[in-house]
């Protein structure tokens, strides 16, 4: 590309600009209107209760107000017959044993269909007509459904506290015969038990988790404030602290590894132990602590080697961070701006999720003919209201009209998959647009700082709000263009992931290889487009040009300074990563000592937990997200200042007519001077 030439009228972000990429702006508006229409149609036809609540064989909800089964809840019968019951069965019983016993039959009647009205009817006819289940098994409710109450005590499998059951023919059978048909239910019950324990931990530790997140927020804010005044010292302190934190982690793992030496069961390998729901079991194995120690040692070695080879470039990165600290100091509102982006992203996610649920539940109840003997109408669609008076019951006396599934044959139902695809595509487009709006707003504010010759006197009064207004007024189309390109690539990636999931069981190795290559290529393409878009948005914020022109100019500018880009930018990213690691590591270690009752001053204050890793992981993940939010502002600031710095070097030469706009520290570091001004 051609280097930028000196422009005497250029004094920073151009205010006299026009609208860019108008076609994309119109396209975005039309797409949003269509998205709203899809949402309204989905909300009109959809019913989320189909996801949450079970139905009986007639397609009627269990336990819902305004339905025939209002007081009912779970369903114990296997398909195709499902009924709603007030509670799950709590005993073994067969219809053969209940028949003839008034008390037992009265209990059994609770689990029969409404058609069962003649207790004198023969058992064979009742079971043939599927009016009652052949057997009742002790069950437990889960997600409003009845599952066999399977439990293991000391290695013995029991259902309802019994190891055998009566099959109704005078024989006792082992409950293990029921396991094959209830394996998945047992997994669900174990998952439910784990989820309940995790929920209990959250109920007793939520306020301590919030305190931990507040500590992370305060630590991030203090760290950024200190960077403004002591950037060089803080960077080196941060590097030393990260090394010390990792060093302590290695020491702690070694001490735990040594302490477990000779203890019974500590030498069992992870492979032999297998997966355990109680993760505390792994902490009693020497191999676990050895693996932790090796991982931390490798991480420590990699960081030290990187610091050795990049020690000279760190000084340049510190200068950029100092300049970014000053810029953020003059635009303090920028630290709160990610909250606006986060709020808009939450709106996008909420609208996408609710629309997806309503679309997936907008099918209608479809009833099919079920029968045991040969019948020409078997599998045909039927209507329960008119089924008993139709010819089907005359030709097929044992036929029944039962609920089969949710579907539909209208044009709307046929194109549901297309609407779901459009919903996913619009989610990616709008989410990327929100992120782009945040990036171009921050870039415009920080560019106003850099191109102010007398900082901060020449800066506008409200740089952040001015940049936000310019982005929405003039560049909605350009932001829509960039986010559209990225959304298309992301949708293709999601499609490839879906195809990969569907083809896992396939034996075609060539197809798998081709799919893997495509996934890799589109992953790389997405990363490149994100990088290009980010720098294009900076150019849009400064010059007000359209997306393609901005992307081309940014790309050529970076290519003309490829060495500086490769070293300075990445070193700065690495230092920001170390800052996140320090904050997350410090808060995580504090949470670990607190929730494991290892801090004597507050030992009695920490709540008792089933799994102490639950609040610890929550605090660690939350701390990372908080630190990432603060440092993302810094990262955008550094990237903006870096591009402005490169433009400054190309446009100006330090003469009285073309002075440099960079700060005095940067001029000193690069041995540049403005004529008539001191170099230091």
UniProtKB/TrEMBL annotation:
Keyword Phosphoprotein included in the entry's annotation: yes
Coiled coil, from the record: none
Major subcellular location class: membrane
GO terms under cellular component: mitochondrial outer membrane; plasma membrane
Catalytic activity entry: choline(out) + n H(+)(in) = choline(in) + n H(+)(out); ethanolamine(out) + n H(+)(in) = ethanolamine(in) + n H(+)(out)
Its membrane topology: Multi-pass membrane protein
Keyword Oxidoreductase among UniProt keywords: no
A GO MF label: antiporter activity
A Pfam family per the record: Choline_transpo
InterPro entries documented for this protein: Choline_transptr-like (IPR007603)
Protein keywords: Antiport, Cell membrane, Glycoprotein, Membrane, Mitochondrion, Mitochondrion outer membrane, Phosphoprotein, Transmembrane, Transmembrane helix, Transport
Localization, UniProt: Cell membrane; Mitochondrion outer membrane
TM spans (from-to): 21-43, 206-226, 233-251, 289-310, 331-353, 426-451, 472-492, 536-559, 571-595, 611-631
Physiological role: Choline transporter.
Family: Belongs to the CTL (choline transporter-like) family.
Protein name (record): Choline transporter-like protein
Gene (UniProt): Slc44a2
